[in-house]
């Protein structure tokens, strides 16, 4: 199979290590990966702010860069969900639908498409897992705790394959961190309070690292950790799954 790597703009600018780890991990698993040049923002910030009608250029560019690949994989649940739910084109509706059906967040691709059962990775640290809202409630990467249903977690399943890792139990395992894209700008005080509560849960249980499938949520919590001069760090799940 040939996979196109979709790197969200904020990952490209602030956390390129997450993108490199995604590439290296996929190649280790035997996947042929291409990076379509000319890719840019998927349009999610505008859409989240109520200006989806201004995302036409982003949509057409995304379709142009990513059409024709077997799969499109990204280390960002929120950006993937935006493409799945909102990518459209008046010029090429059939192609846009094909692109939407082929885009996957990294952990769902590893679990559902590659069906990974073992990983050659080692990460000897206490780790807390943050279940991002877009991934959990939009992409169904893990079960919501308020439902009476069999629990599951695609990120958790993959992390359990990592040698020497110690996954901590949180009091509120699927609580929102408060980032919410432009919500953290429009409702700064509420966003910060939610982030502090989310970070505190991890710290109470001795997390050395907080990981997740969305670097945006981790970035929000990293800012809070740094302001409190905490030794706890954030790390994208791809970097753990790719560790040696």
Q: What is the strand content? A: 5-15%
Distance between the termini: 26 Å
Q: What's the gyration radius in Å? A: 18 Å
- State the low-pLDDT regions, or none: none
The domain count comes to 2
In which range does the helix fraction lie? 40-55%
Strand order of the largest sheet: 2-1-3-4
In the CATH hierarchy, the architecture of the largest domain is 3-Layer(aba) Sandwich
Give the class-level CATH name of the largest domain.
Alpha Beta
Shape: globular
Q: Give the strand tally.
A: 8
The chain-level structural class is alpha/beta
CATH-defined fold name of the largest domain: Rossmann fold
Mean pLDDT score: 95
Give a short account of the largest sheet. 4 strands, parallel
Number of H/I helices? 13
Polypeptide structure, described:
The protein has 244 residues and is of the alpha/beta class. The protein folds into two domains: 2-113, no CATH class; 126-241, Rossmann fold (3-Layer(aba) Sandwich). Helices cover 47% and strands 11% of the residues. The chain contains 13 helices and eight strands. The chain has helices spanning 9-14, 16-28, 44-48, 56-66, 77-86, 93-102, 106-113, 133-138, 154-159, 183-186, 188-204, 215-227, 237-241, and strands at residues 2-5, 32-34, 71-74, 103-105, 126-129, 166-167, 209-212, 233-236. It has a four-stranded parallel β-sheet, sandwiched between helices. A four-stranded parallel β-sheet has the order 6-5-7-8. Strand 7, helix 12 (215-227) and strand 8 (233-236) form a beta-alpha-beta unit. The chain is globular, with a radius of gyration of 18 Å.
């Amino acid at each position: 199979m040939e996979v196109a790597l979709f790197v969200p703009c904020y990952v490209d600018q602030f956390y390129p290590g997450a993108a490199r780890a995604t590439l290296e991990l996929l190649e280790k698993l035997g996947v042929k990966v291409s990076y379509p040049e000319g890719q840019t923002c998927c349009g999610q910030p505008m859409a989240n702010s109520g200006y989806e009608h201004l995302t036409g250029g982003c949509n057409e560019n995304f379709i142009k860069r990513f059409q024709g690949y077997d799969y499109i994989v990204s280390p960002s649940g929120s950006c993937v969900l935006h493409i799945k739910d909102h990518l459209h084109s008046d010029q090429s509706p059939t192609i846009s639908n094909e692109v939407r059906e082929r885009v996957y967040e990294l952990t769902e691709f590893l679990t559902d498409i590659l069906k990974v059962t073992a990983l050659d990775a080692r990460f000897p640290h206490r780790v807390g897992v943050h279940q991002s809202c877009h991934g959990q409630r939009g992409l169904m990467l893990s079960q919501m705790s308020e439902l009476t249903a069999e629990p599951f977690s695609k990120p958790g399943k993959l992390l359990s394959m990592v040698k020497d890792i110690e996954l901590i139990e949180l009091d509120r395992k699927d609580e929102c961190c408060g980032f919410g894209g432009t919500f953290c700008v429009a409702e700064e005080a509420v966003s910060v309070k939610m982030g502090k509560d989310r970070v505190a849960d991890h710290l109470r249980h001795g997390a050395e690292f907080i990981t997740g499938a969305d670097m945006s949520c981790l970035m929000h919590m990293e800012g809070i950790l740094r302001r409190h001069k905490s030794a706890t760090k954030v790390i994208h799940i791809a970097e753990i799954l790719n560790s040696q």
